Structure formats: C-alpha cells, structure tokens
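Forwarding the complex inputs:
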Amino acid sequence: MARASTTSDAFNAVAEPRRRDILVLLAADERPVSDIVATLNLPQPSVSKHLRVLLEVGLVDVRRDGRQMFYRTNADAIRPLHEWSGTFERYWRHQLARIKERAENKEQPK
Amino acid sequence: MARASTTSDAFNAVAEPRRRDILVLLAADERPVSDIVATLNLPQPSVSKHLRVLLEVGLVDVRRDGRQMFYRTNADAIRPLHEWSGTFERYWRHQLARIKERAENKEQPK
DNA sequence: TTGACATATTCCGATATGGGAATATAATTC
DNA sequence: GAATTATATTCCCATATCGGAATATGTCAA
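Prediction (whole assembly, four chains):
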C-alpha cells in the first residue's frame, strides 16, 4: 500500500519541513508566491507544489489578484494537530514532576 | 529525493494513523506487544515495525521482562508537535472572533 | 534439548514522494 | 497581438514506504 498520501491529512501534509515553514510564514498575513519563494529561498515550482498540497488539505486559502496568487494559512486546520498532541500534556507533566522531584532529592539528600 | 524518512522526525513518525493509535494506547501505561496487537487488531509484525519507528524517534521507551517487551509512550517527545501547532493558536482565535462577530451581526442586522 | 511462546526481521511489490528541469497557463502591459 | 511577469503543471528518477507472508531471534519451561 505504501505511505498515506501527503494530501490525506493535516498530519501528513505537515510532515514536510518546508511546508511547515510556509505555514509559519503565511500565518500572519497573506502573501504572493513570489514572496514565499524569495523569503524561503526555494525554487518557485517547488513552492507551488507545496502550496497545492497545503491547499488540498485546507491548510491554506488562496485569493487571486491580477496575476498574483495570495496564499494564507488557515490556522483552524491546524487545530486537530494541536488537540491531538494536547491529549498527552498530562503525561509529560507527570514526567516533568518526577524529574523535578528526583532533582530536588539529589540536591538535598536525606 | 523522495519523502523524508518516517524516522527523521516526530512529525513524520506521527503522520501514520496506526502509530498515533499506538501512542494513545501506550500513553497511560506500558503494555506488551501482544496487548497492542489484541487491542488494535493489527498483525503482530506490523505492530513491531511501527514500534521500531516510534522507538527510533524516541516516541516510545521499552523495557524487557522475560520474553515480553513493554512499550510506553514518551510523551515528552510529542511536545515539539504541540508547541509548533500552538504557535498558530492566536490565529485561529482571531478567525473564531471574526466568525462570531459576523454571526452576531447577522442575527441582528442594522 | 526440545518445544512453545513473544517479538523482531526480511523479502516482496505497488505506490507516492520531492527535487530538478522544462514547459504550460494566465494575466498584464506595450 | 507580442512580450513580460507570476504561477502552475508535467516528466523523470531515486528513494522509502506499508502491507503481507514467511522466517528468524530470543526467552522460558519441561
């Protein structure tokens, strides 16, 4: 079967580091493709391809203005990721607590 | 170059749905492989392979007891994911605020 | 040792990826 | 309409994936 498509999921789409960079860049404001190309120093076709993936998954929105395409991160599509990873928060808190505890016991043994 | 290895990153490792299931299952308590196999209804070799990936990325820890291997989620390795996605929180808040606003304007136009 | 149980590894095949290069499409300007 | 600018698509390739099936490794028990 091979790996799940990059467009099957926000999880899969976001696995690619460049796509994460793009999402960060487009979070605050919409930007034309040329801006992304210049800022991230990537070949234009590569950027277009990544944007296509992000668009298919709904992680970005587009708007055309003349010959420019303005892309913008759709933050809401990232929420599932944040929520899923958030379910583990209580567990890493536990771990931290334990580590802290041990550290304190070490400083002041007995 | 092809896609980045699944073992290159927590992001890549977690892109696979079954691996997410495993992580959830192992978050509360350590469990032997046979338990995972039974609970998630997956073929044993498949589970072993997924665990290997998770282990390489540090998303799980193992402990051997006799012939059983007890795996457990290392929640701390999930934090980068949560933190990265968390940087977008302010943006989806904005969006929600806007949507809410529009909805209220609609209810009571003029 | 032999056997039984628990888990890991290997081999296979189909598939999709991301990069590079080239080219296509679309919109604007002259 | 031709040239130019902005973006998208296509083609090719090396690579790694996941699933399935078979098998190997490791540990315990009799």
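The helical segments of chain B are 10-13, 17-25, 33-40, 44-57, 79-86, 89-107.
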